[in-house]
UniProtKB/TrEMBL annotation:
Disordered as annotated region, ranges: 27-48
PROSITE patterns xrefs: PROKAR_LIPOPROTEIN (PS51257)
Species of the source: Bacteroides stercorirosoris
Domain Phosphodiester glycosidase positions: 246-359
Superkingdom of origin: Bacteria
Protein name in the entry: Phosphodiester glycosidase domain-containing protein
């Protein structure tokens, strides 16, 4: 049999045995359809906040599970402000749906021994996460313990809380250094607040409640414990006041940034927050491109060599990341950030502290 006869025989066998096709006996040949578009390679994910990455921060979303597409979490470089650091920021694009809200069951206590705003319970960030399931949670404002007339517990809020347009608590309205002095000497500080306004943007301001009026100012009253007390804040002092209105708001422990300028007004606000020492810190901030940021840094040597930051250094870090508004919140043992319920920094007390308020990003 010659070569041509062998090829014809093999082809005939394939036709009749139906190899490669059970329907018509014609083999299937691996022809490529010329009209088919080639499958493009998968696109590289686009970094939502390239300036933050360019500043040395690392996107760590993958370490914390699924997050809304408009929220990203970053870990700091090994040093901030020339110091060894462990810090995290969570960033929400408010133009794409990012929001914040203050957590905590805040109400007015009319017990005469209290007559103030707060709650009968406090919660760890873990407990706030259990009830809210928020992607990001940080600790909130300042508070202290007080006993009601029946000796039951009440936790007094020193800071303003506003939720869904309702003011649930106001910032502390007075300061007394020595309750035994005669006559009693009282100061009337304007205290910082971070608020979301009705148009959806965020800003820092200084507030004061007279009981019948609630004011906000573009500057703080220039108080100091080594000076005579200034007058009670009003519609015209320490500047022309506006009526305080906010969709959501949290008071804190010193305005860090306002209109893009570093302020760091803890002293004028008469707040002893160990501002000039290295401490764990928590802050909330906002940038002109509508990015909401939560910041925490570790401290007190929970990680060897990591002492923490001063409030001025936190202000500088946030400004370097593009923030124009920022408020220092309760820090120290209260500082904590959870991402999908997982801790970022190590709490300085070894475990999470129960706090009166938290703030959620969602």
């Amino acid at each position: 049999m010659n070569k041509n006869t062998l090829l014809i025989s093999v082809f005939s066998f394939c036709l009749f045995c139906g190899c490669g096709d059970d329907n018509d006996g014609i083999p299937e040949w691996p022809w490529t359809d010329p009209t088919e578009e080639p499958t493009p390679p998968p696109e590289e994910p686009v970094e939502a906040n390239p300036t933050i990455v360019a500043a040395g921060w690392t996107n760590v979303n993958a370490a914390f599970g699924s997050l809304p597409e408009y929220i990203n979490v970053y870990k700091s470089p090994e040093q901030l402000q020339g110091k060894k650091a462990v810090a995290y920021i969570a960033v929400a694009d408010m133009a794409k749906g990012g929001k914040f809200e203050v957590l905590g069951d805040i109400a007015y206590c009319d017990d005469k021994s209290i007559a103030n705003y707060g709650a009968e319970t406090v919660n760890t960030p873990d407990q706030f996460y259990t009830t809210s399931k928020a992607p990001i949670i940080i600790n909130g404002g300042l508070f202290f313990y007080a006993a009601k007339s029946d000796d039951s517990a009440f936790y007094v809020s020193q800071n303003l809380v506003a939720r869904s347009g309702e003011i649930l608590a106001v910032n502390q309205t007075y300061w007394v250094e020595d309750w035994s002095s005669d006559p009693l000497v009282m100061w009337y500080p304007t205290i910082g607040t971070f608020c979301q306004t009705e148009d959806g943007t965020c800003k820092t301001t200084w507030t004061y409640s007279t009981g019948t009026k609630h004011y906000c100012y573009s500057v703080p009253a220039d108080n100091a414990l080594n000076k005579e007390p200034l007058e009670v804040p009003s519609a015209t002092f320490p500047g022309v006041a506006e009526e305080f209105k906010a969709v959501n708001a949290i008071g804190g422990a010193g305005v860090l940034l306002s209109n893009g300028e570093i302020k760091n007004t803890w002293a004028q606000e008469l707040l002893d927050v160990a501002a000039d020492s290295n401490q764990p810190r928590t802050a909330i901030a906002y940038s002109t491109d509508k990015k909401l940021m939560f910041f925490v840094c570790e401290g007190r040597e929970r990680t060897e060599g990591v002492a923490g930051l001063t409030t001025d250094e936190v202000a500088n870090v946030l400004k370097s990341l593009g923030c124009t508004e920022a408020l220092n919140l309760d820090g120290g043992g209260s500082s904590c950030m959870l991402v999908n319920g997982k801790e970022t920094i190590k709490p300085s007390g070894g475990e999470q502290r129960a706090v009166l308020t938290g703030v959620r990003m969602y």
